[in-house]
Amino acid sequence: MNSAALDLATMRRANAEWLRAALQLLRLRLQRHAIELGAVPGERRRMDWLVAGGDVELTRSLPTDEERSLAAELDAREQIARGAGTPPALRGIEELAGLSAFESDLLLLAAAPALDGAFARAYAELHDDPRRDHATLHLALALYTEDVAERLLAADAIMPSRRLRSMRLIDVGDDEREPLLTRRLSVDERVADYLRGVNRLDARLAPFLVPIRETLSSDGASKAAADVASHIESAGERWCTVNLVGPADGGGREAARAACAWLALQPQLLDLRRFAACSPEQRATLGALLGREARLAGLALIVDASEAERGSALALAVDEMIATLAATLMVISGERWPTSEDVAVVRVARPTRLEQRSLWRAALGPHANSVNGEIDAITQQFDFGTDAIVDVVARAAQAGGEITGRALWTTCREQSGSVLDDLARRITPSYGWDDIVVSDDVRAQLRELAAQVRQRGRVYETWGFGAQLGRGRGITALFAGPSGTGKTMAAEILAGALDLDLYRIDLAGVVSKYVGETEKNLRRVFDAAERSGAILFFDEADALFGTRTEVRDSHDRYANLEINYLLQRMEDYSGLAILATNRRTALDAAFLRRLRFVIDFPFPAVDDRRRIWERVFPAQADVDGLEMAMLSNLDLSGGNIRSIAVNAAFLAASEGAPIGMPHVVRAAAREYVKLAKPIGVAEFGAYYAMARR
To answer: Domain check: are 287 and 358 in the same one?
Structure first.
């Protein structure tokens, strides 16, 4: 048995010896009270005299020698217990909860049947009622108070606002038809165990609480932890609420855990969603139990409110805890939590890219050397805090063997992409550089764009350009051109070449007529994407970025605010953000100047259309006799051509024949009708009649 186990065993033995003596002293008090009750001549045992008046005169017997001996033994054993490292459990509750001597005696009286079943029989006999085999305030007043005035004041001990009830140290029977004097007083299993020397978390709280694991330490979190600890220490006897403000996975949990270690508190993370789903009555009970655990177990509660939107059930639950919880509370949020309560605010700085490199190497341990070349690229692309870094390394190591840079990169993508899936549509890249038909200049610009994403680390960090750019480090681009000219395909090619996730956000669905909602929707997207550095492809950009005019009314002013907010977030975004529009001419020149790349995707000319037709059919497709010169005359974009190819393939497959001109012409005619374009002889030539069928 190790020394810690020996110390615990010694403390429990000392507590047990003290508790044995305390219970024996209680037995003697009960025995003396029974004798006193039996001494009333010619009358049944009466209880009303305890509070009602002086018509019954009864002289209490002085304490016996045995009682005096036990009292002295209790004092001596308390010194022994404190010498072993902790006071007796009942004395510990007294000090932690600030109980009076009478409240402490009342707590022991209520707990005695849970510690020794013989007390239940004694209580039933003293109450002259076999159903009342429990402690009552009536009995406590008889045992521990001397006169009527003292009893009347002592009865306040079980009022709802007093510690015995507000901390759930004593349970009071809920039958309101029964006088408070004679209601059942008892303790739950948690309190009984504590008095026996077993300090464990209340089982009713277990589904709502998760221990905070120990993880790597960042400079920002360590500084924040020191500030948190200082606020809590300066609060003294008052319960302190601290709001840890910073980005998601920016070190808030780490700072909270480190502060608890500093203060010798037990950190517990609250499952906010499960707590908020409870009824108000259930939350009140859980809050009281958490307040009790704060004292009995030295618990500090941590609430991650990063995803709690104002006005939601989650936010209301957080407000409720801030206002009512009698415990050390740490609320983690992205922005300062709005509350009128007295809350200390501590900012948590996210680990810098340089610090993240050190954290990655520390988490990788012996694997760091094998992926040393990839750490810089991973750090530049994925903005992870300590928890996420530890999780990624653990998941990459599950396969066993050496951890590779490829495995880390893939795991980082999986780790960070799930949050965005709820806000945008993930596009799986299916095209490569050979699939897109664009001019050499457009292709060169796309390759330059990819190169900037790859070389950010060298240019911004190693060469120092990041310090000069300040907030404008985001790589932004505008893809402008008619529908079907390759804008989405180009975004897919970039995502595939860079091995990044691609998310399409329809700006037409993001823009809201309600003031502030557009910014709120955009903020959610950028905040979720920040960790992953995914490529964000904002389609239908002209829904928001039309030509700005002079501000004539409040609507114009808010529209400009929305535009400026998006531009600011794009410039701050650590990844690549692409805007796509069909109408470049509708965009304000001032807006265009703030973008790093502006790439035009013109409608394909005849030669470009021929190249598209030559590549649109897969090599394994059964194709026969297609006239590429004629097809290239069709006035269609690349997207329309791809649609025609697929539809023609289905027509041919249904006939069990190779894909031929009849199938392509029929599919092309359908596409013209869909686009409301006239079917002309100049375009369809010899196939004009076939197209008109």
So the answer is: no
